[in-house]
Amino acid sequence: MTQEPLPDRLPVTDRTRHRRLREQGSLERAELETILDAAFVCHLGVLVDGRPLVVPTVYGRDERWLYLHGSVASRSLAGDTPVCVTVTHVDGLVLARSVFEHGVNYRSAVIHGMARKVTDPEEKLAGLRLLTEHSAPGQWSYARRPSRKELAATTVLALSLEEASVKIRTGAPDDGDGPDAALGLWAGVLPLTTVWGTPEPDPALPAGTAVPEHIARRAGTRHG
User: Fold this and answer.
1) C-alpha dihedral sign at 87, 43, 101, 28
2) How far does CA 52 lie from the centroid of its chain?
3) Could you tell me which of 125, 108, 13 has the C-alpha nearest to residue 67?
4) Segment 16-56, tens digit of pLDDT
5) pLDDT of residue 2 exceeding 60
6) Nearest to 108 by CA among 204, 43, 205
7) What distance in Å separates the CA atoms of residue 22 and residue 44, rounded to the nearest whole number?
8) Nearest Cα residue to 130 out of 122, 214, 173, 117
9) Residue 139 neighbours by CB under 8 Å, 6+ apart
């Protein structure tokens, strides 16, 4: 599918307008892409039989589309339906002098749109490649590719990255210059980081099977 460039600024719509904490909002598409690139799990919200359903799933992207996948039997991947996809990073707890002022340092993106089911075989394979490479760069070339039977059993959805809302909160508590500053209580941020651990081999592996370089080099590196 032809990729059309999207504007550098995110459009403001009824669904993406920042109504609260506007100072934490961003209209920069670059911020959206950075948030998406730093994660690989999102939450897909969709109506199924008139009821809301939110499911976690992995994703991949290019400049224009967010790709999601799952079993053809999944009711959340029906396609041609309005959906909402959310990605959130928690960077730390903001511990203030009063419970009311507590908060979270975070980066979040909420994407709205009409998800379409990918039916073109080339785009479907390309979408699965983006999904694989997004979470495990190098794995698409290392592992066996999907068979025709596996492709037939898989649904791939594409969601345009055109309409999205971005919010980011950083920094210390907001009560340092208020009356509670006189309480003499500790206040600050408790940072949170995630680090990739040492690869754990499948017990069924033959002895001497080496960890591929593209996996080994991620051990000890920060995720997110």
Assistant:
1) positive
2) 20
3) 125
4) 888 887 888 888 999 999 999 999 999 999 998 889 999 99
5) no
6) 43
7) 24
8) 122
9) 132, 133, 214, 215
